[in-house]
Amino acid sequence: MATSTLNSTIVRAADGAPLVRVRPLNRQEAGHVVDAVFAQLSPQSRFLRFHSPVPRLPGPVRAGLVDLDGRSRAAVVAEIPGPDGPEPVGIARLACTGDGTADVAVAVVDAWQRRGVGSRLVAALAALAEQLGYTKLSGAVLPENVAMLGMVRSVFPAVLSHYDGDVVQVAVRTGTSAWAVTEEDVMADLVRR
Questions:
Q1: Which end of the chain is more exposed for a tag (fewer CB within 10 A), N or C?
Q2: H/E element holding 88?
């Protein structure tokens, strides 16, 4: 059972207890959330997220991830209740690439993978992107990240994807544009065949 608003989504257990809450992330708490999520990623999860071995989060990369302005760089966080307050278990971030398009990246800590957290993060980020006026979300996924590709297809059945070198580029439309098929979509699909 899920209770949804634009500001947060709370996933509840059968007894009604909150399990995972997804909400927008602000700049002041971004550093803590990025560090906490990164610390709970296995080497394999870090590789799949950053497309290379990343034993430590380099300073410039971390600075870019925590630099949120709520418009051109925004994020949502998934949290669970902890003894000292909410504990982050996932983050999804968007970065404007221009023309109503944003690049998206997602990370879910290993202990919470394949439990619906990534789907909820992506859906919440898409809702936030729509609210901010984005009409298209895109991202690069390693082909071996089968779980991520499957999750994107389950959340966005109309996802467009194609191989681009060593990655699979995925793109989805948001809002009312999600239901429109453009000439660009048709041509892209024909070229890929």
A1: C
A2: strand 87-98
Nearest to 160 by CA among 133, 178, 134: 178
Least confident of 12-21, 57-66, 181-190: 181-190
Q: Tell me 44's DSSP state.
A: H
Beta-carbon count within 10 A of 151 CB: 22
CA trace torsion 73, 126, 93, 169 (10° rounding): -110
Residue 177 in this model has a pLDDT that exceeds 60: no
Q: How confident is the model at residue 142 (pLDDT cuts 50, 70, 90)?
A: very high
Phi, psi of 87 (to 5 degrees): -115, 125
Mean pLDDT over each residue of the chain, to the nearest integer:
87
The residue extents of the domains of the chain are 2-192
Give, as one character, the DSSP assignment of residue 182. Answer: P
**DSSP label at residue 30:** H
pTM of the model: 0.83
Q: What pLDDT does 193 receive?
A: 56
- DSSP letter at 51 equals S
- Number of residues that this document lists for the chain: 193
Distances (CA, A) of 74 to 43, 63, 136, 173, 176: 25, 14, 15, 17, 21
Q: How far is 74 from 191, CA to CA, in rounded Å?
A: 33
Q: Which CATH architecture fits 2-192?
A: 3-Layer(aba) Sandwich (3.40)
